[in-house]
Please model this.
Amino acid sequence: MSVGGRLVSLFPAVYLGLVLWQVMNCLDDFRPMDGIGLIALVYLLPLVTHRVHFLLFPFGDGFWPLAEKKYNPWWASHMFQFPFIACPWIESLIHFIPGLYSLWLRAWGSKIGKNVYWTPRVEVVDRGLVEIGDHVVVGHISAFCSHMVADVDGSPALVVKTIHVGERSFIGADSQLGPGAVVAPRTKLKPKSRLYWRGEWP
Model:
């Protein structure tokens, strides 16, 4: 891992420290602005950091050999999303406001259509690497993960490929969509479906 990669690995710890500091401020002498500041810190700090980083170090579908010690912008993005992966209940609160979760994913860089229904326990690991069509329903505890480690040209590499779900599709409960998964429009995936790298449906 490069020096930059090691430095960005500290983000989750710094984030946790800042959140705890703000919580202590709220408990010590609560003011409405402190509560607003806490919410902004929890949700906006990782998001804004990700967006600024992406402007400086854009990345898309591809692969990175793990043996190389080059700076990997995907790793930084992963660290910025780490708080929501480690504590999914924080992100689950967004589902209480209709349409806000789709807006949340768009803010990270994903392309989300209109009238998409997400159940509260859906997990999107790579929030900027998902494309969802209009009128899609995503079932309970389904997971979208746009990265994996695979053998590329005889060496282990990080593979990153955007997940695509066509319009008016239904993703059955407990389904898992991996990097590069493609769900054709108007498809109904059975519960516990598994679509991984280079997988297409049907």
In short: The longest strand covers residues 147-152. The mean pLDDT is 92. The first helix runs from residue 3 to 8. Residues 3-201 form a domain with the UDP N-Acetylglucosamine Acyltransferase; domain 1 fold (CATH 2.160.10.10).
